[in-house]
Specification:
Blueprint lengths: L1 H5 L24 H4 L13 H4 L2 H6 L6 H11 L10 H13 L5 H10 L8 H14 L4 H10 L8 H16 L2 H10 L12 H10 L4 H10 L1 H4 L3 H14 L6 H9 L5 H14 L4 H10 L8 H13 L19 H17 L9 H6 L2 H9 L9 H5 L33 H10 L7
Helix pairs in contact: 5-6, 12-15
Amino acid sequence: MFSVLHSVNLFPIKKTAVDSKPTNKNQLYLRPISSVAPSCVNPSGSNPDTDLSPETLKNSTDSTPNQFFLPILSRRVTVPGYENVNLHEKTEAWFNLLRTHGVTNYQISKVLRLHPALLVADLEKDILPKLEFFKYIGVSERVLTRLITIDPKLLTRSLENRIIPYYDFLKSILKTDKKVVAAIKKAPWIFTAHHTTNLVPNIAFLREVGVEESRIDHALLHYTDAMIQNHRQFKEVVNQVKEMGFDMSTWAFLKAIHGLSGRGMRSLWDRCYAAYRKWGWSEDDIRSAYLKDPYCMHVSENKIARVIEFLTNKMGWPLNALARYPLLLTFSLENRTMPRFAVIKVLLSKGLLKEDMSWHSVSSGSEESFLEKYVTKYEKEVPELMSVYLGEVDIWESETENVNMGIGLEGETTDKVGYLKAFWVKDFVDMDSTPMKEA
């Protein structure tokens, strides 16, 4: 089964081409514009980068006079087929409109340079209604700016035939505008293809393989980019995840789909695989960790090294112990794991913890829950415990030797000071047979 995992074929997400032929004379977007090849022509024949360099744009503030900034862009941009249009006036109108919606000079120039054909659009009929629609559903100026600059083609999409139908479908699944906006923020290019091209069949396929509606809602909200990818690629990724042995009723199934959906993910997976092997993990160790939490194959090699070094050098755990609890890789080592483990280490050294202590509870519980269970509860016996948690007392640097705080290989206890029992091993074995859920 792991051979399937190690030979996963990842597919780059390709955006579906959009038919630019007009379908309705009353559409808010003038279709002939979308068929114009977006190109930048410099009539003077000089190097265009000297006319409109990033430095020039970034140094021009929102208060820069139009007389200084606009002629630069007007000289640089020419729209084939519209040579007789006064692009200087069009450019000025664009700047005036977008700046009232929080878009900066640099961002506006980037949009128009990438898609100069936008200059000949009717701002009142084609562009303004789209900006007002996004504002109406709760998209902030900051988010709207990001949408426009990441995917300027959004402004060429038909409001009636593309944007509103897509929005309606998203809301039928997510129920609220707030969630729809959150999904759009996750994938600003979401309107590239019609929702019936990829998203609808992708959701239908998840239902077909038995994924619950609540899981689909979660996936659309949190893994939007994976859900809107090419349908053929999506089916192949889902089938790969099933073959790896993931339980479709768990969050890990959705995480794995997301983790295998996107450019460059195969390269990252391979780097993580090599890093774990370097630390002495077997293929079974890697497979076990991946099935518990797929994100363990999508972290940096540096994060892997720092967590393993901490667990082995400071806690005395064996090198492959992390494979039994990869969720630790998703937490901040300095801000979460080390403070909590420092508290546990002090309590164990004083014999204050019971044998049913769970590392799952220690690591994944909320801060309020952790403080209540392990700090406030023992503040009379150990008054300095809060200082240990806050890092004001550094127990790691004060150690004269590494004290074994955990488990041994093959269930063998390697306790150096005698206050830990074999329940450490039991805790990890129990987690091997229990599906992990998000904290």
